[in-house]
Amino acid sequence: MGPFKEASSGVYEMNDDPLPMVKNLVDYLYTLDYNENLRTLNQECPSPISGLQVHARMFALADKYDIKALQVLSSEKYSNMLESSSIGSEFLGSIPDVYTLTPPSVKALRDKVARFARINLENYLQDPSSREVYKRIAIDVPDFLQDLLDLYIMNPLTGFCYRCNPLSTMQALQTPCHKCGLSGICYDSE
Q1: Which of 64, 171, 177, 179 is deepest in the core (most CB within 10 A)?
Q2: Record's InterPro entries (predicted)?
Q3: Distance between the two ends of the chain, CA-based, in angstroms?
């Protein structure tokens, strides 16, 4: 068995990944940064790609080629964009990339997505188009639903704690009834 063909030819082909993403990877290797403002992935499929999708795909490339610093950078960029974005369709559109381009053992981005969905999904689903995207994701990306359900089971009630954490598990003491708005705890007398 001889040397790898890449070693003898000096060429490494990356045909599995879209050219703009490969260019971003090469840019990162030279500058330690990459362009998040891609319009499309290729000319054959001119559908737009969001910044969140770019970061998710860069994270997947970093995992594929074992570039830990790029994983950290793309994860941080994804998180920062999540916090500054109020467009539910962009967030929802990035979920399939996060869950299908990396193996289940790679949890860094998946955990961020599930936590963000736990907090914000209710608001995003008020929009009918976002609700339709969510329904498709529920069918196509069952691992996302599993992670989200696990968060609800482990932390049924969350809230803001000034001392500990912006999102902490809370104990329900006096919460208003969703139906009538009355606060307090009611007991069944039977």
Answers
A1: 64
A2: SKP1/BTB/POZ_sf (IPR011333)
A3: 80
Is the separation of the CB atoms in 56 and 97 below 8 Å? yes
DSSP string, 93-122: HHHHHHHHSS-TT--HHHHHHHHHHHHHHH
Gap between the Cα atoms of 187 and 190, Å rounded = 9
What gap in Å lies between CA 151 and CA 37, rounded to an integer?
32
Q: For residues 22 and 13, is the Cβ–Cβ distance under 8 A?
A: no
Residue range 61-85, pLDDT digits in tens: 999 999 999 999 999 999 999 888 7
Percent of the chain topping pLDDT 90: 46
At residue 172, what are phi and psi to the nearest 5 degrees?
Answer: -80, 115
Q: Which residue has the higher pLDDT, 111 or 181?
A: 111
CA distance 35 to 20: 9
Can you name the residues that pair with 161 across neighbouring β-strands?
165
Q: What is the mean pLDDT of residues 128-134?
A: 92
